[in-house]
Every structure is written in structure tokens, then in C-alpha cells.
Amino acid sequence: MEGASGFAARVRESTRADHRAAQDLPYVNALFAGRLDRAGHAALLEQLYVVYETLEQAAEAMRDDPVAGQFVLDDLRRLPGIAADLRFLRGPDGAARIQPSAATRRYQDRLRAVAFTWPAGFVAHHYTRYLGDLSGGQMMARSLRRSYGFDCDGIRFLRFPGLDPRAVKQRYRDLLDAAPWDERERQAFLAEVSRAYQLNTDLLADLGRAVVPGAA
Q1: What's the per-residue H, E or C state across the chain?
Q2: Residues in CB range of 12: below 8 A, 6 or more apart
Q3: CA 207/CA 99 separation, integer angstroms
């Protein structure tokens, strides 16, 4: 047992610095401030399409796992929303014209290496993406509504119709607390969560260099 605070609280505390690093990037700052055009927003969706396509393929591979399978919730799937947003922003063949950045390819390679065969590794990447969408992603949705006038189209990938984000996040934390991993596996999980954050940060840094004027 992890004590009163639980393993989920330990995960959250151990990743605070990683989370802050991802927030303080030129691309993120420009997107939240409304300084990007629609193409700049679509550039993020194109890279996320590659990430979520791979992660959601891994979810199917892990669906029957006794531990990882409990985290697979179909209503969390983001790929259909991303595809719809790309059709809205880029046209009917938007997803077909995606060119993954070098950082996105590294992210995809890591998912292929660990998320299809290692249950805790899958959960580490699943946690990093979907808990982020349910938390900071909702702040992003509000910012995109204000800056770009999006109501539904353009931000479908951040919408969770029929889900209570707070209830889903609590369920997720309960599952983390209950996961039957020994301390060695928990340490490996924490290291993979940190790696997932770094891969996402690299993806966003690449985007900043590509679409934000003056970004280093």
C-alpha cells in the first residue's frame, strides 16, 4: 500500500516539473494567446493524429490485459475528434497529408516499443495523454473558443460528451492506486511517465520552431 495519499498522488507530484516544462513553450504560449492562425492550430492536430492513432492501436492490444485493460475506456478515444477537426481545418483529405515531425516519429517509435507489450508502459503513456486532455486540455478548449471562435468544430478532440471529467479522473486515480505493481514496476512506470512528458515537450518544441516566428 502507498499510504493515505495513494500512488496516483505520488505520480502527480513526481511529474509537476515535467508538466510545467510542457506548458512554458513558444508554441503553447502562442496558441493560448491566440497568436497562431488556423493552420498553426491544425499543425498540432496533425502531429497528435499520429500519436493517438498509435496509442489507440495499443489500447486495442491491451484491452484484455487484467490491469491495463481497465484503463481502456472507449469514450476517451481522441482519434475520431482529431480526424473531424482536421477535416474542418484542412479539408476532407487533411489526415492523408500529414507529415510527422522528427519529434513525433520518436514519440511514435517509443509507443510502438513499449505500449503494445508492457502493461505499465501503456498506462504511463495513456495517463499522460488522456489525463492531460481531461485537465489542461479543457483550459485549452476555452482558450481556442475565445481566440478562434470555435464552438464544436475545431475543438472536437478536446470535447468529452457524455463524460464527467472529474468522475473519470477519480476513477483513473483509483485504478492507479489499485494497480498490483511492486515498487520496481512503479519506479519503471514513473520513469516512463516522465519520458512520455519529454516526448510531448519535444513534439511541441518542434512545432514552435516550425510555426512560431522567432521561436528558438
Answers
A1: CCCCCHHHHHHHHHCHHHHHHHHCCHHHHHHHCCCCCHHHHHHHHHHHHHHHHHHHHHHHHHCCCCCHHHHCCHHHCCHHHHHHHHHHHHCCCCHHHCCCCHHHHHHHHHHHHHCCCCHHHHHHHHHHHHHHHHCHHHHHHHHHHHHHCCCCCCCHHHCCCCCCHHHHHHHHHHHHHHCCCCHHHHHHHHHHHHHHHHHHHHHHHHHHHHHCCCCC
A2: none
A3: 12
pLDDT digits (tens, 9 = 90+) for 157-212: 999 988 999 999 999 999 999 999 999 999 999 999 999 999 999 999 999 999 98
Q: Per mean pLDDT, which of 2-11, 136-145, 177-186, 205-214 is the most reliable? A: 177-186
Does the global pTM surpass 0.70?
A: yes
What's the chain's average pLDDT?
A: 92
Neighbours of 87 (CB within 10 A): 15
